[in-house]
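Structure tokens please, single chain.
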Amino acid sequence: MRSFEYNTPTHVVFGKDSVEKVGALVAEQGCKKVLIHYGGGSAKRSGLLDRVSQSLDASGVAYVMLGGVVPNPRLSLVREGIDLCRKEGVDFILAVGGGSVIDSSKAIGYGLANPGDVWDYYLKKKIPTSCTPVGTVLTIAAAGSEMSNSSVITNEAGWLKRGLNNECCRCRFAVMDPTITYTLPDYQTASGASDVMMHTMERYFTAESDPMGLTDELAEGLLRSVMRDVQAALKNPQDYDARAGLMWASSLSHNGLTGCGTDGGDWSCHQLEHELGGKYDIAHGAGLCAVWSSWARTVMPANPARFAKFATRVLGVEAGANDVETANRGIDAMENFFHSIGMPTRISEMGITPSDEDLHELAYKCTFMDTRTIGQFVVLDKEAIYEIYKKAVK
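Here you go.
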């Protein structure tokens, strides 16, 4: 195992009615005015925004609101948020939503705290030195942005989806009330749970020859828990224990815990999906499922023992005559699980039929215009990426 550093500065407030504490949590930050950033109408219709604003009012915290965040959050709204915050003197951002809202909030925070165009930081032309403080009221178990150092934004000019990882953007606090997720549509629940799993699986399929055994067991246990809880939540949307398990797993899957002592993982599937999401505006978790098995079958021969371990320990697959046979059984079992919760395992299952030209374009963008490779389990160049996309279409 490798040496590592582990940092989780986010204050978690977890449980029923924890939303009522948000005003006090914000007031503790000593801010003058808050931006409440949120997505669509569900936060209003459910009464969540009213509960948040009432809690802020009770704590004497001034605020302004900006909604409109969509899946694959847009740079244009980030820029609008930056302008609004400067005009209103905002010095704290409260994200009321899931990963897209939190990522958009972090981007606004970067734009407020650093000079120049915020997009330059996502293009890695500049490195941010700070971020306006962000807190969150989480509404879906999915991205794990509430405890991660990452933010992903889509630029409508060219539909480029780019991520930025920096410790300074970690949320000051995360309010997590599992009951908020009771009314989520099944597709969002399943897509979110898939995202949680993929954050762990990206780290699990490491190029390390001897990763930390305890980290492996934490990852395997988390994956089994999510698989159990998402099926329970789909069966009974108001199963509190299942919803709570998914929400906590969301944070643990992306706060670095399941990568301690490793090289950090592969992350090819996320890079592949980012281009799909940027071009076709699909749900992130669903897009990850659509490319995973094509990626897995491509890279598995490089280390079939790793996939065989995943198959037996996570999916309960009976070992075959050799690691390759066991690994293939595991990939099949993973596909069967995704289908069982309504997730796709091919791009075509999302109603998308990219042309060959589209696939080449996706591969070109995925390599940042042929300037990089992706992955660590197996390093993938533009042609290898194209072949994976091609397999994933069928």
